[in-house]
Every structure is written in structure tokens, then in C-alpha cells.
């Protein structure tokens, strides 16, 4: 089921219907990452450089190589910080385009079924903001765990697998269910959703390809929700579409 959902989502990435969304996501993600890079550089220059100058006053010219070493380590640190911020960035981008991607997937692959209803703007903003805080907190924990040999990579996958799986699945489910019901449905199938989240974390770990994470995750979770709903038709459906409401 999970592999089928991933395969269909990957195919949807290159469908003609998703090209407009594709370029929007690519453009906004790149802009966000560039902005974060410059922000981190400025933060380092503001906080760290004065401290280094105070620590090493009157450094002779022959010791100029120290500046190069510090610069290299600073660049590595900034790159690490950017990598850890990649999940929050993709979460923000997904919050903007999830409904667009979901609509394309539903129209293309499920034409005979009732389409989902986009989340109300206020509800989507609150949900995205809450999740953004969770992702940042989770990746701060993962950052500390990077100092512990042997579990740093595991921590990355577990933290991002849980958070990405949870958020993207609930977004997809809330197109067809009330928010409370969507959460209950996710909890009932938490193992499947978590394993799907690990696939998203693996996708997120691939350089360049990870810029497509919002599109891939949105499509995959729409498919997964459809598959789980078909397998579990007895679960109460009091969602916004069935009830004729939009939250």
C-alpha cells in the first residue's frame, strides 16, 4: 500500500497538471532556502565574529590560517543548520500548495469520487503554524542527538518520519473529514502513517530531489488516505464533504 502510494505520487510529480504547482514550489523553496542561508550567515557574523576577535586579540599575520579554518567550520555549521531547517521550510511550502496538489491527484486518479474540500484559510494557517513549531522543536532535539554517535541518522529519520507523516496525512484527511475525525483516523492507522512518513524522510534526505518533498508528500498522502479509507469503510465519516460543510 505504502509503496503503491509512493509510486503514484512520484508519477504525479511529472504530470502535466502539476507543472504549474511544481514551478511555484521550486521557486518559493529556493527563495526560502537562500533567504535562510543569508540570515544564518548574518547571525553568525553578528554573534560569533565579535566573540572570536575578543578571544584572539592581536593575532599575528602568520596565524591568518586560523581565520580560514574558522570560516570552513562556520560554513559547515551553516550548511548543517540549513539542512535541519529544510523540514520546516517544506512544511511551510506544503501548507500553501497541498490543496492544489490534492485537487490534481483526486481529479486525475479518482474522477468517480467526490472531491475533497480545501481547508478554510484560517484553519490551514493555524494548523501549519502549529506544525511548524513542532517540526522546529523536533529538529532541535535531532540537532542535539547529532552529538551522539550511532543514533544521529536514526534520529533524523524517526523525528522527520513521524512529523512529516503526521502533518501531511492529516492535511489530506481533512479534505474529506472534520479535523477531529482526521486525527482519530490517523491514530487508528498510526503504524502505516509512520512508515509512510519514513518514506517521506528518505525522500527529504536526497539532495536536490528533496526540493520536491511538498509535492511528493501531498500526493502520496492523498493516495494513502484514499487506500486506507477504502480498507476501513466502517470508520465514521462525519467529514466536511460528507456533511456538506467546509469547517
From TrEMBL:
Note whether Zinc-finger occurs among the keywords: no
Name the source's superkingdom.
Bacteria
Where in or outside the cell? Answer: Membrane
Q: Which GO terms describe its cellular component?
A: plasma membrane
Where does the chain cross the membrane? 21-40, 65-98, 119-137, 143-165, 193-217
Membrane topology recorded in Swiss-Prot or TrEMBL: Multi-pass membrane protein
Main site of residence? membrane
Report keywords, A-Z: Amino-acid biosynthesis, Cell inner membrane, Cell membrane, Membrane, Sulfate transport, Transmembrane, Transmembrane helix, Transport
Please give the Pfam families that the UniProt record associates with this protein.
EI24
GO MF terms here are: high-affinity sulfate:proton symporter activity
Q: What PANTHER family is this protein classified in?
A: SULFATE TRANSPORTER CYSZ
Q: What is this protein called?
A: Putative transmembrane protein
Q: Which organism is it from?
A: Sinorhizobium sojae CCBAU 05684
